Amino acid sequence: MSKIEHRVALVTGTSSGIGLVTAQALRRDGYRVFGTSRKPMSNTPDGITMLICDVTDDASVQTAVDEVLSRAGRIDLLVNNAGIGLLGGAEESSAAQAKAVFDVNVFGVLRMTNAVLPVMRRQRRGRIVNLSSILGLIPAPYNALYASTKHAIEGYSESLDHEVRTQGIRIVLVEPGVTRTSFEENLTRPDQPLAFYDTSRADAEKLMREIIEKGDAPDVVAATVVRAANAASPKRRYTAGKSAGQVRFMRRFLPESFVDKNLRKFSRLPD
């Protein structure tokens, strides 16, 4: 029996992919797990209590948090996983579309966190794991807006951790590499496509498909989340998978010119 069997976890975006596998991993580790999805699911994962929650809606977020408290009385762990992707040239998206991506990937994290922090403060303990990405560490051609949201999550999480650490709460980042999830899931196309980018956009999508096929299993990310959730003295960030660790090392220790050249080569862009 796990020594943390009594702890309660809330995981957003658990209808499939990383969120679902993470919720299942936490359940196996002894947590009582509540998951969220924007719409009702036809098949509810065994052992996971599913709630409807739209992270772009303040009232929906608060209702979900209140429901967890009503049923379990506490929240020890929040995993902010819900997110959407956007592939295309940066100038192919309107400001409205960019705001919509940020509303889910950044302000959704903020809404969930703001709703849970008072609970954790009353408990005098709690942990929040924010799902970032290696694209929060490096440039991402044709994923500029998505990468921008992950860069924002990096800065937000690290800063918030310093603010709440004395309250018994820790904020940590998990940075997955390329993960084998459904490519079509949560991926948005530009709302103002330009013919100039048609070939480059198609090439970027082809490359993404290729690298996803060779990516890490979602279980790799889930195991990293569990480790980050349970660490007695958590690190600021955890990379999930070999490729993520390599990217982090490259960005941190190698010259910018070297990183730039290799990024363009990997992205199949001309020098």
Automatic annotation (TrEMBL):
Which family is this protein grouped under? Belongs to the short-chain dehydrogenases/reductases (SDR) family.
Q: Which Pfam families match?
A: adh_short
Claim: Oxidoreductase is one of the keywords in the record: yes
This one is known as Short-chain dehydrogenase/reductase
| Keywords linked to the UniProt accession | Oxidoreductase
In its UniProt entry, the species of origin is given as Phyllobacterium zundukense
* Residues making up the signal peptide according to the UniProt record: none
Database matches in InterPro entries: KR_dom, NAD(P)-bd_dom_sf, SDR_fam, SDR_oxidoreductase
SMART domains per UniProt:
PKS_KR (SM00822)
Indicate the segments forming the Ketoreductase domain, all copies.
7-199
MF terms (GO), sorted A to Z? oxidoreductase activity
